[in-house]
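step: validate -> pass
step: tokenize input -> pass
step: predict -> running
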Amino acid sequence: MTSPLSRSNAFVSSVSRKMQVVAAVLAMMALGLSPNAAMSQDDADQKAEGVPGVVTAADGWDIHYTYWESPMGKEAPVVILLHGKGQARLIWKALPLAKELAKKQFAVIAVDLRKHGESKAPENASVQAKSDKLSKFDYEGMVLGDLEAIKKFLYAEHQALRLNMRKVGVVATDMSTAIALNWAQADWSKTPFDDAPVASARTPRGQDVQALVLVSPVDSLSGVGTINATRFLRATGISVLLLSSKKVSSETRTAAKMYSQLGGAQQDEEEKRIFNIGSDFKLSGTNLLARQPQLQAGAQKFLEDHVMKHVAPWKDRQSRLQ
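step: predict -> pass
step: emit ->
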């Protein structure tokens, strides 16, 4: 049972806290400041830097992210930023792309893929999972676990009218280019819910990834290739921008091969959606973007043209069966 003295102390503590709040507000008013304006400025500063969060993949991995919410609400397009091997989502704070996209009113989410940044193995994970070495199970987990967990977060934001998940773009560098291609294939392979007699009226599960920016693309990881993904995506109408260094032969070959597999050479110039751009700098991944501001500007313009301008009005994505 709580003693009278404890209740008295709790009451005094509560009054003290309230008096501190009142005193702070009075002090701000005396200086001619609006408490609401000050709090709004704090919120604005935090939003400018992105808000950290975490989602849990189906296999128990906690996947950390930084999120920039868009003021556009339910019509906001979305860009997912994926780092390269050995990097983390914080790399996007060192580059202007995330903030520039946020200024253009994209909803932006930078992700720590498993075994990178803050996305560590669960306590009960196997020894292999806790090893720093990346295996085919890790790469498969990035595709079917990490990015699917991010997709669930986007679904929740979509249903809350804070973005439009039907307009998703992905920017990926080196290792994560193969992850992005395979996830886009998985997304486009999802059949709609069987919740309407006519196929066109059924609630979709996927077909949301509209564009990919692949910087220093790689064509295979352990257990995760790209040839099936590129050939599959060729028929979807998805847009792809390939960025690589002309002075890194492996990148040039990979970009050229992907361009061909995606149907780049057979495009109608008026409806061009597959692009392959080479840089004269001998740099790769985010280093290439850092040294070539025009490539970042080109990537942003590509996302504006092929994601923001993509015609896909917001629609309820909850199945009628649920």
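step: describe -> Residues 1-33 have pLDDT under 50 and may be disordered.
step: cleanup -> pass
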